[in-house]
Amino acid sequence: MSTTAELLKGAAELFPGEVVTQAHVRHFDLPFGAGRFALITLDNGLDHTKPTTFGPQSLANLNAAIDQVEKEAAEGSITGIGLTGKPFIFAVGADLKGVELLKKHEDALAIGKGGHDVFKRLSSLAVPTFAYYNGAAMGGGVEVGLHCTYRTVSKAIPAFSLPEVFLGLVPGWGGCALLPNLIGADRAVSVIIENSLNQNRQLKGKQVFELGIADALFEGADFLEQSLIWTASVLKGDIQVDRAEIDRGEAWDQAVERGRSIADSKVHGAAPAAYRALDIISAAKNGDLRQGFDAEDQALADLIMGDELRSGIYSFNLVQKRAKRPAGAPDRSLARPVTKVGVVGAGLMASQLALLFARRLEVQVVLTDIDQERIDKGVGYVHGEIDKLLAKGRIGNDKANRLKAAVTGSLDKAAGFGDADFVIEAVFEEMGVKQQVFAEVEAVVPAHTILATNTSSLSVTEMASKLKHPERVVGFHFFNPVAILPLLEIVRGEKTDDASLATAFAVAKKLKKTAVLVKDAPAFVVNRILTRFMGEIQNVIDEGTPVATAEKAVEPLGLPMSPLVLLELVGPAIGLHVSETLAGAFPDRFKVSPNLAAVVKAGKRGFYVYDSGKPELDPEVAALLVQGDSVLTEEQVRARVLEAVAQEIGLMLDEGVVAEAQDIDLCLITGAGWPFHLGGITPYLDRVGVAEKANGKRFLPVGVASVPA
């Protein structure tokens, strides 16, 4: 049987590009005469922008450090052992670049076993072990601390999580077995399942302590010093650590069932990771950690060799890396400074934009509209949202006052925008209205001012066509709600120049948005794909398939919401408008549904009512529907919808709407909340064979978002 060192050596050979973490051991005397102490510091030698990870060589280095302190503990030369990280970072888990390279189940199993074999040594040493969570801790970084006897956490930690399920894995180095046995099954389900499936929600230091994961909480400024004083008191017996008794009865089973219902509501059985994690949590009820670790190893290996994880890592890399270097963006040095922003319109969307610009750019923002009442309402909305941030403690009094003073309104565009560097319109989605607005703005702004449109589907080129300087017009399409969805589609019109485009990308970065460069094509990216997707659902309903069958057909994709619930969120009138735009541009593929038109004409907000708490077809909408007699099964509907989407994406790539398939996926993940485990959409269409059926070829090469051949 292989030793841990042999396992890790073999794994390291498979991963030559690892950023290696060192495990430095230093010794000092604790206060209060508590004895000699060994502190292991995890550090990859890089600053906090390159977080510490665990690849095979990094695990081997930690293993060697434990060899040293194990000997010292056995000899009695130390009274305790601590584990901490470099400034701002504890450790953020397994090195995913290495996981991507694995081609064999036995190699994946070795990664699981290697991590377990190293980490579990921390729980069997001759002296107590302490984890000091000084900075960001995720995945294996959290798990290595769970193997220690005691844990402290810094109040300053911005991010602490077990994000594996979000990516398509399970916490496989002790998390599924140890955490429920430390804090109870219900809290463990919240951390492992609920937080992961809610867009990888992070915990702050105080929450880590309140959940019982850490035994003590200290300020960030002198965190390690306070942790060592606390450690000395624990070793001397002056502080007793009391932990709540774990309920291993019915409460445990109920927690697992709650986890299953969360997984069902989020992924609808379409991704296995959450269910594998819940199986391990369920089995951990008897407290048998060895059995739990073995189950983690097996689940880890199975999932590493599955395409969902590869899609999850692909998604993660898109959001973390590609998003930071937008394909096709001009040189950043061309961007001009933006010191004042104008917003045309004062409705809800315009007001959300004003708040975002004020908060992120910290510049003057002026709203205009057709009457003072609308302006007052828009400015009032922004001030009200600032008050909410103040009440929640997200900003202080000074910041709130500065933000309120920065956002004003003016009926006079010349007075309001005369010195603005960037003006964005968010008015009614009608070409004539937008052209008129831009003509009025162009007449009063300086020559360098960027004119941005938040249009969701109209041609930016046509919008700019009647201006003296069409080169400064750029599409700047946000997604609703503006504060939550990260995507910003930046649209280059036919005459948009590089300086205007570079300025738009620079503003997007300051707004903390994921900017994707998009060609000026009807409905751009997200709305075009969603309209084809939802249009095909609408078509099969119009032809005769029951609404419930059409909706259920796409459940296996594990989308955040069903198509008709999404339509309700977007608004049927907006959905109808976009479908009309696309039907005008591509009449062979897009239709305007007469049933959707009837729903809009009747003033209905959607297809459903929620009297029972669940969506049920509104009887008034049911009475409006005129259907044919062609009834499809769920499988037939799904095949038709997916082929339509695959065809549309293929055409968009041929047209050069975006640079690559990766940008389509980045848009759907960040603009429409499509799941990480799908990889957006193109890896899924490749995986189920629909891409080749629709277009005669895959979107991505084998090994990208899939297991290497």
Summarize it.
By secondary structure, the chain is an alpha/beta fold. The strands form four sheets. It has an eight-stranded mixed β-sheet with strand order 12-11-10-13-14-15-16-17.
Keywords:
709 residues; six-stranded mixed beta sheet; 49% helix
Task: Report what the structure shows.
It contains 31 helices and 19 strands. It has about 700 residues and is an alpha/beta fold. The strands form four sheets. Strands 12-11-10-13-14-15-16-17 form an eight-stranded mixed β-sheet. Strands 1-2-3-5-7-9 form a six-stranded mixed β-sheet, sandwiched between helices. A three-stranded parallel β-sheet has the order 4-6-8. The protein is globular and about 85 Å long. The mean pLDDT is about 95.
User: How many strands?
Assistant: 19
Bulk shape = globular
Count of helices?
Answer: 31
Strand content: 5-15%
Structural class label: alpha/beta
Biggest beta sheet summary: 8 strands, mixed
Helix content: 40-55%
Q: Radius of gyration over alpha carbons? A: 28 Å
CA distance, first residue to last residue: 28 Å
Physical arrangement of strands within the biggest beta sheet: 12-11-10-13-14-15-16-17
Mean pLDDT: 94
